[in-house]
Every structure is written in structure tokens, then in C-alpha cells.
Amino acid sequence: MIANLEFENFTAFEKLDLSLSPRLNVIIGSNGTGKTLLLKAIYGLGLLAGGRFPDRSDEGFAASASGKFLSIFSSEDEKVGTLSSKGAQAQTRLRLVNSDGSAVEVTFGARSQYLDFASDTVKPNAADTPVYIPTKEVLSLVRGIRHPKHDRATVEMIFDDGYVNLAELLVQPGFDEKSDLLEDPRLSNVIRDLVTLVGGRYRAKIDGGFDFQPGRYEEKAKSTTDGGEGRSNAQIAKAYQDSTQTRFVSSGVQAFPTGMTAEGYRKIGVLHRLLCNGSISPGKTGALLWDEPESNLNPKLMKKLVQVLLELSRNGQQIILATHDYVLLKWLDLLTDEGKEDHIRFHAIYQDPNTQKMSVESADSYALISKTAISDTFAELFDEDMARALGASST
């Protein structure tokens, strides 16, 4: 679990010291303030600490790790120095500290080709590996990204590693492809809610793509005459399944291509797939990084999505979101339950008018939102709407 971030001379960030909540973190700011860059830097450092590059003694390690780190940022330059702040005299330093005190730290200069690793950089730990969900949906892109006849160099020029890595996670088989039963009571409600939200589930196809199967999960009393057929062997589920079973029930409508479903639904489908195949497992896997989860999502679905995210955080999943959507922020404020030990830390990025560098202000209160352009814009809209209504009523 990530506890702290320290950046110096990284892109538009001259200095950043960020303390993260072990539960839910929300990064807010206007377009161009660096929200996505911040998420990608966390992701890149997390991969370095999470076992993606295990053999640090290999002579090619620095080149390999640096190349993969750079590819996360869609940079056409082959030198990591391109990520340094323009005009910076000192080196760029990025440090990620985990809650157990272990850390990964890299430095590089404006002309550096490769990352330099600090001596106390952590040994790889697969449990620290984060999952990054980019702004655009990925389910409909998986087949194209992974197709064996497509030139890999061309694919990697079109899609940064955030998309490529996520595509690999999405094709991992999940319990829903082995059985229609939900096995883990912790995630039963979450997975059921996600399926209900979009009216079905996305399944992997033999050709490397996905289709959408309409249906829902239903909880039924366990039959005493079935001899235990279909019961999960998972220890965590046995007591629960003594009396109930939660099974996917098809609506009877034939499955259809992913591209025929709404893009917002596909984003929900990504989260569902990652939970079903264990790529996201609260308390066992690294942080979930999600860039603008509200993108292409109907505002009516926002409340349920926020409830799902809060439930995951309550089960031990660290979440870091980047957003500039007022509806998402307000639902986070309204649905936070202190009785369930919910904790949300807001991180507002703003530009210093004198230096043009980005700074971050953090607070454990939604009141921080009142200082951002997001609330100002919606307040302006409300005022304009009221002014028009009052003007119309007075004539």
C-alpha cells in the first residue's frame, strides 16, 4: 500500500510531497494541471516496485526498466530526461514509499537516457503491483492490441503501456468463466451490483475479444436435494453457501459484440473483469489507479459506481482517482459513512501564477473542493440558471 510520494523537478511539478490515504484518494484539478501525469508516475513507480522487472542484476535492467517506464507516458523520445522539468538545474527525483517503510526511488537528469535507482529501492513484490485504468475504455480494444498479426512496434506507438498492460490483465480467466457462482462473500455484493448496473457481463471469446451476455446475479436458497452440486470449494465461502448460492442467470437474450454496448458500460465491464479474475483483490493486490472514471458514464450511474468504490475501499483496496467531475465528487461527499470508517483524502492540483509550476494541496475534507475551479464553474451555472428563471418570471 502506498503511503507517500515525493517528486522533484518532474514535468510541471517542481516539488511535490503527497501523503496518501490507505483507502480512497481523489486527485482534482483543471485540464492540463497534470492529473494523468501524476497517476502515470505512481503507476510506473509501482511497476518498478511490484515485480515487473525482477532481475535487477541483469546488465540490461536499467535500459529495459527505463524504456517501459517511459512508454507509460506516450513519449516519442527515447530518453527519460524528457520527463524532467524544463529549465531545471537539479536532477529529477521520484520516490514512492509504501506503508511498510519500503521504497522505490529513481533519479535522472534532463539529458539522461536511463533511470538511476537509489540504493534503498525495494526488492520486487508482486503484491505491490498497481492496476491502472485509463480514461478511454479498453474492452473493445483488447483484440486489436493483442492480435498476433499486428506489428507490436506499431501497436505500442498507438497505445501507451497503460492500455497494453491492462489488455493483458483483462484476458486473464476469471471465476465467471469456470462457474456462474460467486465464491467470495466480500465481493459478492460489489460484483452483483456491477452486473446489475449494466444489465449483464462481458465474457472473453476465443478470438481474443469480448462479447456481452445480458443477465443478472440472483441469490437463492440452497436446495437440500442437489447434494451440493455446484457448491464452491473455497473455504471463505463455505459457511455462506451452506444456506445460499449466488448464480448468474442469463436473460435469454443472445450475447452480442462488445462494440454494440455503451462505452460507459464497457468501463464498468473493465472493473468487473478485473475483480472476477483477481487482478484486483482488496487487501492482496496493489493500488487501483483510475483516470476519470466518469468519462462517458451516464450521471445516473455515478451514485452506484461511488458506492462500489467505497465498498472496495472498506475491504482493504487502496484507490487513487483523478477527476474533474462535480457529480462524482458530490456523491463521494454524500455517501461517505464515518460509521464504516470511510476515509477520503482530496488532493487539489493548482498552478502557481508566478512560477507556472504545479502545486498540490491535500485535505481529508470535501471542503477543499470549494477552492477549485470545479465548484466555481457549477456555482456559476447555478447562478446563471437562477438569474434566467427570475428574469423570466418577472416579465
Automatic annotation (TrEMBL):
Organism of derivation: Tritonibacter multivorans
Protein name: DNA replication and repair protein RecF
Lineage: Bacteria, Pseudomonadati, Pseudomonadota, Alphaproteobacteria, Rhodobacterales
UniProt gene name: recF_1
Single GO molecular function: ATP hydrolysis activity
Pfam (any one): AAA_21
SUPFAM superfamilies: P-loop containing nucleoside triphosphate hydrolases (SSF52540)
Biological process per Gene Ontology, one example term: double-strand break repair
Domain called ATPase AAA-type core: residue spans: 283-329
Residue ranges annotated for the Rad50/SbcC-type AAA domain, each copy included: 5-102
Record Gene3D superfamilies: P-loop containing nucleotide triphosphate hydrolases
